[in-house]
Amino acid sequence: MVFYILKRFIQMVPLLVGITFLSFVIIQLAPGDYLDQLRMNPQISEATLEKLKQTYGLDQPILVQYFKWLLNALLFDLGFSFSYNMPVIELIKDRLPNTLFLSVTSGLLAWLLAIPLGVIAAVKPNSIVDKFVQIFSFTFMSLPSFFLAFLLLFFAVKSGLLPTGGAVSPNYESMNLFQKILDRLWHVSLPAFVLAITSLAGLVRLVRSAMIESLQSEYVLFARAKGLKEKDIILKHALRNALNPFITILGFEIASLLSGAALVEIIVNWPGMGMLMLDAVLSQDLYLVMGGLYIGSIMLIVGNLTADILLAKLDPRIRQREVEGILR
Fold first, then answer.
1. What share of the chain is helix, strand, coil (3-state, %, to 5)?
2. C-alpha distances out from residue 20 to 124, 216, 260, Å
3. Where are the beta strands (DSSP E) in the chain?
4. Is residue 139 helix, strand or coil?
5. Which residue has the higher pLDDT, 214 or 43?
6. Do 82 and 283 form a contact (C-beta atoms < 8 A)?
7. Nearest-5° angle of CA 89, CA 277, CA 256?
8. Residue 270: CA count within 13 A, CB half-sphere
9. How confident is the model at residue 37 (pLDDT cuts 50, 70, 90)?
């Protein structure tokens, strides 16, 4: 298992370098930069702009700039934000917890609903629950998350039943611990519901199809022939094997949650990485954009690594193949 994790971790390193390098080159090839905006200010002289360019290393070749940035990024020194006039890592520290809280909350909600709904729909095909699951799945898989966010935002503004904007209430600091937890959950409810519903639509369909295939397999027929309880057959045998494809797409689900979270954050004014990255792109703040992409890439890589570890833990055949590969 240790060799399996080490191998996956080593494979992630060139992936991280490739993502950041392509992003850096694309950003640099885009016309203009942050200093071009300063040139529009007549109070800033050309000599001052040249000094700023030398200070930030913008006068050096792209490859030199990238490798200097990468060496610093490995130590989590992500540079200085032009527009905010403060270290990038400080800006990310302030916004990243909100994005992680939103992604984790919506992900847990989607997974906790997808497994029981998918299992019930598979165990009782063509029942009311199964038909509801299929209608729900096809409806919300075809509905973009940003459109659903606009609809719920309109409802929240008109009704006043859901909070819009901000992660906490103005009197958050004066609350006790339990009140603070409830307040955060209340404020995250709107964006988390949007992300959870769109993610749940695909997950429940996957669980249903995987469970139907698992229930029709030979080992389930053999377990029934032995007289095992139907509950044990479903939960201990069929569900365990049906979870393999479910765990496999964990990394992709994390990616979709993070990308979807950025868009939903912008629509509902949630103070996370989405708004920060939008401001950085609009102002052409090079190091802030790269810092956000770097942290986002690490999160995606860790998510995929987690999915690989869980899959290896769940399926011993994967561990066996890794051992045989090492022995050869």
1. 80, 0, 20
2. 47, 45, 20
3. 80-81, 86-87
4. helix
5. 214
6. yes
7. 105
8. 33
9. low
Helix (H) or strand (E) holding 261: helix 250-268
Q: How far apart are alpha carbons 117 and 204 in whole angstroms?
A: 7
Alpha carbon distance 281, 81 (integer Å): 12
Give the number of other CB atoms < 10 A from CB of residue 264: 29
Residue 319: the pLDDT is 58
- pLDDT tens sequence across 87-137: 899 999 888 888 888 888 888 888 889 888 888 888 888 888 888 888 888
Structure tokens at 79: 């540079």
| Residue carrying the six token digits 């949007």 | 194
Residues 294, 312: Cα–Cα separation, whole Å: 27
Q: How many CB atoms lie within 10 A of CB 182?
A: 11
CB 211 within 8 A of CB 151: no
- Helical (H) or strand (E) element with 163: none
Query: Does 187 score more than 60 pLDDT?
Result: yes
Rounded distance between C-alpha atoms, residue 119 and residue 100, angstroms: 28
Q: For residue range 50-96, list pLDDT tens digits in order.
A: 777 777 777 788 888 888 889 988 888 888 888 888 889 999 988 88
What residue has token string 């694309």? 26
Whether the CB-CB separation of 233 and 275 falls below 8 Å is answered with no
Distance separating alpha carbons of residues 245 and 120, to the nearest angstrom:
18
CA dihedral 284, 288, 292, 295 (to 10 degrees): 150
Structure tokens at 174: 């004066």
Provide the residue type at 148 as one letter: L
Considering the chain, what percentage of its residues have pLDDT values greater than 70?
Answer: 86
Quote the tokens at residue 22: 């392509």
Ordered structural domains, the chain, with CATH: 2-88 (no CATH), 97-271 (1.10.3720.10)
